[in-house]
Amino acid sequence: MAIVIPGFVDSDKVPGAVIETVYGRGKQSLGANPVLLVVTGNKLTAGTAVADQDINQVFSENDADTLYGAGSEIAMQCYAALQFPGVALFGAPVAEATSSPVSATLTLTVGGTWSTSGTVLIRLAGKAIAVAVGSSDPINTVATNIANAINGVQRLPMSASPASAVVTVSVLSKGTRGNDYVCAKDLSSAPAGLTLTLAGGSVLTGGVTPFSGGAGADSVATVLGLLTTQIWDYQAWAQNDATNAGLIKAQLESQAGPLLQHPGFAVFGKNRSTSTSISFAQTTLNEQLACVAHMTNGETHPCQMAAQLASLFATTVGANPNTRYINAVMPTVAPHSQRADIPGRSTLNALLNAGVTPFTTVNGVVQVVDAIQSHCLNGSSPDYRTYHVGDVFVPIRVSKELGQQWSIFSAANPYAGPDPSDGQQPAPQGTATPSLWVAEGTALLKQFEGLNWLQDVDANPMIAEWNTTSKRIMSAVPNIVRAQNIQAGISVRQTAAS
Amino acid sequence: MPFPTKKLRVYPNPFTYIDHFGRPAGRLPFDGYEHSQTPGAVGASITDVVLTQSAMFMRVAGRDLEVNPPQHDHRITYSKDAVEIPNTAYYRDALKRLDLVAADKDTALEAGIKFEDPSKVLAAYKAEAVAKFNAETAEDAYARFGSVEPLYTPSNQPTVQAPAKNESSKGDK
Hints:
The complex is a heterodimer of chains A (498) and B (173).
Chain A: E1 36-39, E2 56-58, H1 61-68, H2 73-81, E3 88-91, E4 105-112, E5 118-124, E6 127-133, H3 139-152, E7 158-163, E8 166-171, E9 182-186, E10 194-199, E11 209-210, H4 221-226, E12 234-236, H5 242-255, E13 265-270, H6 274-285, E14 290-294, H7 302-316, H8 345-353, E15 356-362, E16 365-368, E17 377-378, E18 381-382, H9 390-412, E19 415-416, E20 431-432, H10 434-450, E21 463-467, E22 472-476
Parallel strand pairs in A: 1-3, 1-12, 12-13, 13-14, 14-15, 19-20
Antiparallel strand pairs in A: 2-3, 4-8, 4-10, 5-6, 5-9, 7-8, 9-11, 15-16, 17-18, 21-22
Chain B: E1 8-12, E2 44-53, E3 56-60, E4 63-68, E5 71-78, E6 83-85, H1 89-96, E7 100-102, H2 105-111, H3 118-137, H4 141-144, E8 151-152, H5 165-168
Parallel strand pairs in B: 5-8
Antiparallel strand pairs in B: 1-6, 1-7, 2-5, 3-4
């Protein structure tokens, strides 16, 4: 390949070196590229963004408040995602349901009599709220103080209004997903004789009460269309119902196809029963490009669980797509308040065998047990050929890296042809052949093997051939993702002294 | 001699999940440690597997490589009769959360819950699940999907296990 410096022509006879400096040459490190995360909850009318239309980058919680309204569903997702520094976060708000959406509500009714002071503790959306009660406070005053305390919490996804002894708490974003919020009370420091009755949906473990009455189905269809214009590496979907999930799954598969090359990975959250999450993951999804975060009776809303887990992925895969997520901390997901809801080994095993990523509580901190994708069935048979999210993230990264390598290879070899047969002249310089491309690709794969992304590269070689019809090189690149050190068997055997 | 452990008698709860076609599809996997290590669910089996999208293969240099796995539609069949399972913490928790429904008083007692007529419990759960499905899908969505009822095995018949995939899959593996 001739080296040309523009302007340094053959007729230039002036002694000395002519030096040009060209920036940004060579292979770019894809690890340095921002990995994009998009969140999709509903916004409030107060936010400046336009639902079903805008995709805005969000740099801070204040940005989220301005664009979507403080405490809106999508703003809550942003707060959760921003916990991991450096996340390239975008919001694509889905419009609220159009046909008469209703906010989920819950009531707290103050009652009883008391003669001492104390503190009523309630938890809403996983946040603890303390309300001081005076020894002679009337019931209505306590109710008003509870409402004021709730309304005084910054960025809470709900508001409260008192009426006599009853405080009605309403989720700001309307729709059925508001029913996934819960409220818990702790009267251990309250004045003796004071009662606080929670009323909402069917009571969960330990009297934790979900909101109820939220109604209205939004549709992701328009936002799905907006997302087709580029790669959205991670998508934290607030919409975790079967119908929307089916649409999302279909789009993930079509966008990841070889001609579009927009591989995206969806993260959903669920915070109710094990059985519901398992059936959702296996029946509606069963999809390598999706993951379902589950926390039994979790107090943090599923949309936030999804956003925080997706943000963890987005901020770690650049450096290492085969990151191990066991025991990864979810910094603002509220821990299980009820010991009975912390999953035991049998529950964890059931979830992990069914394509669900469980969250658990260890010493008051929420951790990811193991991050797995949701594909687990082939027909009716278990299929764990793809298991960890790394089994998905690594091939996606390898395909991007190879794509970039191809650009460089193609520029250096503008022509292409078959490998010469034995005895034939080698292909002229500047002509790409299958074996040249395999050598180029294999060198890259060996690098990835050294980085612990892949294993057994030599035993699973890249292969390529010349397609005589379309006059192009076709290649296939088996990826055996390096196994992670997740389990061990250790048998400790006390032995009698001889 | 170990103390005899009472078995639990339970019904599966199909309405813990309604799928994207409006079909009840809830199921609770076996307790993998204290019951069965074979894949499967309590009183529920995948009995109908329909291939909806074939696997995509790519043939390069004489080798077939699977590019995309096949996609299947699953139907679940439930046991009409109560199922007897070991008395484990996992199953007792499932009873508390109505992932399973107690079939008798002894089972409810073991799980620490109040016994109620299972058919009434299931009916109430169904009403709530359908309301939730309608709320998050569309008005009367469950009815528009045909108000699909769970598939049940005939009484006194074991829950059918899905046949081997070569026999049942209406397509490739």
